[in-house]
Structure formats: structure tokens, C-alpha cells
Fold these 2 entries.
Entry 1:
Amino acid sequence: MALISNLTVKLGKNSYKIVIDNNFPFKLKNNFTKIKGYSKIIVITDKTINNIFDNEIYKLCNELKSEKIILPSGEKTKSFKYLEYLMNKILSKKVDRNALLICIGGGVIGDLVGLAASLTLRGIDFIQIPTTLLSQVDSSVGGKTAINSIYGKNLIGTFYQPKIVIISLYFLRKLPEREIMSGYAEILKYALIKNRVFFSWLKNNGKKILKINSNACAEAIRESCKIKSYVVSKDEKEKNLREILNFGHTFGHALESITGFSSKLNHGESIFLGMYIAIKFSIFLGFCKKSILHEYTNHLDKLNISYKIDDYNISASPNLFLKHLKFDKKVKEKKIRFILISDIGKVKVYKLNEEKILLDFLKKEVF
Ligand SMILES: NC(=O)c1ccc[n+]([C@@H]2O[C@H](COP(=O)([O-])OP(=O)(O)OC[C@H]3O[C@@H](n4cnc5c(N)ncnc54)[C@H](O)[C@@H]3O)[C@@H](O)[C@H]2O)c1
């Protein structure tokens, strides 16, 4: 097994390893010795992944003597309906508290399985094996689990850490281009919030990542996971520092919500848009120079990535946008909190005291 890197999310007794690897994780037992002690192991994946990696998943289930549950693919699976379906399926297999769930999937399956693991019998162990670039650099690490509500994105969930995260570049070879770009949004986010050197590196290596060059992907995943692990280790439950990871997400989630979590706009695409709006808002409020926006747009133009609302054919008004923004989890004491940028690698929290400021901005600069 070609091990590329090994990181740790330091959370006291809830600490866990992130293993970055080239191959399909057949030898799970080598990475996670505790696996032999579980009373039952259930592998959970989605239909698309199961179809593509049928053979590999079959072998893994055989090796672990595990059962398998397959869920539909897509954001709509992150719902009460599928949470209930999944938990009933798990319980029907007569699990006890010593059972293990292995999640093989993107952020949708990861968020849903994490939530089911945290609720089943008041908490059973789970492992993340993320299969999209986005889930490898972001959602599989940090323990945020969620489903969506009619009131907004990720509004129902828990903090519940996996026992290990096993990232395999093997999965990326079959990932559609649109999904690779989606993952790139979160990689770029880490550079923008925390590391200008990483941003400069992305300027030279972005194209290679989008083409799934192994070395470039491994480095981007490692650096992203390193930043995420550091932030999560400092602030597991998002009391302060962790909220910087929401850069671009407050605006992005509102747009996802407006489009009804449909395939019109996937999560990563909403983050490209959200970061574009957040940088513009930062300039509007006088927090950062216009040159930061140029650095952002030049980089995305070179990669042929769209970041404007018109490019995605989304019809919304400033008032509708504001309505959706208000459902965000980042609203505290009725004030929306935005993560804004002052320079590449430096962000700040902004509490909106007057809605008029935001509406003026949206009317002038966004719609
Ligand atoms: N928990 C967190 O901290 C966190 C962070 C960021 C995003 N998220 C959540 O993650 C979700 C988005 O995740 P995503 O972009 O991975 O979406 P996803 O899980 O829907 O995967 C995208 C599509 O790719 C398919 N797919 C997955 N792996 C594949 C592979 N290797 N080859 C081919 N096809 C594959 C899936 O079946 C799906 O159709 C959103 O719901 C978002 O809210 C959570």
C-alpha cells in the first residue's frame, strides 16, 4: 500500500488519524487495527459509487465480513426521509453499541452516515472513506454531520468524530470534471483563509489538480487536511476559530437553498460564488483592496471556473437572497455573521448590524 501521508486530528480522547493513500483501501486492517473487535460492520455507500467501484467494494465487504447498505446519490439524500430509512436499515441488522459503520462516499453520504452513527444507540463508531475531492479535503474531517431542512442547508446535525479517515486517490480517477472543480473550491478556500504561500502554489498547480495529477492532488489534499485539522483541533464545536472555515459558505448556502439543492448548482460551485461575493463585500466595506478580487478572479479565469451568478442561470433578488441568508446557522442574536477577507490568508468575522448595508451591497454589486 503506497502510503503518501499521515496526519492526526488532535482532539484528546477523540483524536484520529487521516491516512492519505494511492490505492483502494483494501488493507483497512493495517490502518485501523481496532477493526477486528467490532460486533458488526456495515459499509454504506451511494448507488453511483457502488456501480463504479462494485468490484472493489465487494472485495472490501468480503474481507471485513461486512454488510452493505446502498443509498441514492445526490444532495436530496441528506434529508429526514433518508436518515430514517438508513437508521431503520441499520437497526434491522440487529446492531449493538459495538458496531461500526464504514462510509464510502462523498460529502452527502459522509454527512448522513456520520449523523446516523451519532444517533444510533446514542452513538456507534464510524469510519470515513471519502470518494470525492471535496469530501477528501473537507467534509470527511472535523466531525460535522448533517441533513438539510426546508429552512436551509445543514440545519440538523451533530458534532461526531470518525475513528479514522482514509483518503484514497484511487477514487478520483472516475470522478466527473464538475465534481473535481467542486472540490477545488474548498482547497482554494483554505489558501484564501490561512495560507498565501499555498495560494501561490495553487496558481502554479491548479491545472494539475483539476487533471488529477497524483502528486499535485496528494499535496493539495495534505495541505488542506493539515489546515482543517489544525482549526478543528483548536475549536472542535465552532465556538470561535472554526467559523473561519465558513468563508464563502454563508452566501453559498443561501444560493444552494434558493436553487432548492438541485443539480443546477452543486456545493463547490456555490462556494466559488460565495467566496466571490464575500470578497466583493469585504471590498464594499473597506476591509480589503480590490487587487484581492483580481487575484481571485484571474486564478479562476485561468482554470475556466465560473464564479458569477449569471453564469449559473440563477434567478434571485436581493430580498430573496437576504431571506435565505437569515436561515444560516451563522446567525447569532439575530445578526448574520460573515467571514470576510482582509488579505489572502487573513480573514475576519463581521457581524451585520444593519440589513440595509447588505441590501445596498447586493443591489449595487451582486444582482
Ligand atoms: N461536514 C462537513 O464539514 C462538510 C464540509 C463541506 C461540505 N459538506 C457537504 O458535502 C456535500 C457535498 O459533498 P460532495 O461534493 O462530495 O457531493 P456528493 O456526495 O453528492 O458527491 C457528488 C457526486 O459524485 C458521485 N461520486 C462520489 N464519489 C465518486 C467517485 N469517486 N467517482 C465518481 N462519482 C463519484 C456521487 O455519487 C454524487 O453523485 C454537501 O452536502 C455539503 O454540505 C460537509
Entry 2:
Amino acid sequence: MLSFRRTKVAELTVDLHSHLIPNIDDGSQSIEQSVEMILKLKEFGVKKIITTPHVHPRYPNTPLLIRQGLSDLQEELSRRQIKIQIEAAAEYYVDEEFSQRLLQDDTLLSFGDKYVLVEAPFQTKPIYFDSVLFDLKMKGYNPVLAHPERYRFLEGSLDWILRLRESGVLMQVTIGSISGYYGTIPAKIGSQLLKLEAVDFLGSDLHRFAHLKYLEMGLKAKEVRKAIENEKVKNATLL
Ligand SMILES: [Fe+2]
């Protein structure tokens, strides 16, 4: 039997969830940190990064700010001759302000097939959440729910996730959840979703160096390898 250290990581090919633009959210705090984390993703077989800064009351990032940060980062990567595709979208926090903004301004940062990455508050499920996702679909976007396995209001139940997915919301499980970074419940829910083939994308949600070890362990986990190698997740279609 192969030891953990010698097990190879599954190649994700495209990572669609990370916080690698420095100093605009709670992710990377410097260009050096960003470069180091990008090199690590490259080592794990990532060929394209779609980085997703928070758009959140605490981090009110605009498309302009995100595009500027991306272009500075791209410039630094090319200066250091690091070859990797890097694009930016966003991780939208769905609150009442987001739903109001959606009414007036529907130019959201999306990727691939008009995918928009959204997250919910962790503690309490907002009553308006499902209807905002419906509004997004009406506007021609395909919502992707970030880390469904981590919402505490689920209390271990998969019902809400599976119901949303049936209504056309795509699910992005975080790889570090499977290896236990966020505790036992997210690990369990994440694995259950993978077993049910109810995961559309896997993502790193990389913010800081501490996440890398769990990302590596997650990429070596049997259920993650199976989902990637048997093309049960759509990450590679984003290349
Ligand atoms: Fe995130």
C-alpha cells in the first residue's frame, strides 16, 4: 500500500475558487504570498486559476478593482516567467444588498458558462436566498454555490443542498473540507455529496499557506481523486 506522502495528488486542471489577488479581501496579503501560492497550485497540476475575491459588505470590491488587481498579478507572474493562465471572477455574498443590486445592475463577474459563484451566511439561512438564486437564473446566470458542506445552519442535513441542486444550482465543494480543515461535519457532508455525485465543481478556496496542506491531503483523498479522474466534476471543462 502506498503511504500518504507517496500518493499522487489528483490533477484539478482548473481551480475556480481562491483569494489570490493581494490586499483586497481576507486572502493573500502580499504579491509574494500570491506568487508562492500560485506556484504551489501549479505544482498540484492546476493549469488555469479563476480567482474569486470576496464581494462582501466587509470587502466591497468592484469589477474595476478586481480587474486592476488581476492585471498587476499577471504582470508580476510574467515578470517572473511563471506560466499559468489566471483570470478573475468573484465570490458574491448573497444578502439583501446583493439582491437589491441585482435589480438595478446585472453585470456580475462570471466565468465559463455564465457561472456566478455565490455564498450564503454561515450561521442562519437567509429566507430570501433561494429566490435570489432564481432571480440570477432569470437574468441568464448559472449560480454556483460555494462550499455547501460548510453552512452551519444545515445541521448535518443534505436536504436543502439537494433541493437547490435539483432546481439547477451547481455545487462547489472545497477540497480542504474533505481532508478535515473545517471540522468533521463539513468533511462528512462533502464526502456524502461526492458519493451521491452531487458535486459539480471542486475548488481550493485558497486564502493562505495554512490551507495548502489540507488542499494537498484533499487532492490525495480517494473520493476526490475518483471524482476528478472519472470526470464527475466539470473543472476541466473550464480550461
Ligand atoms: Fe471563498
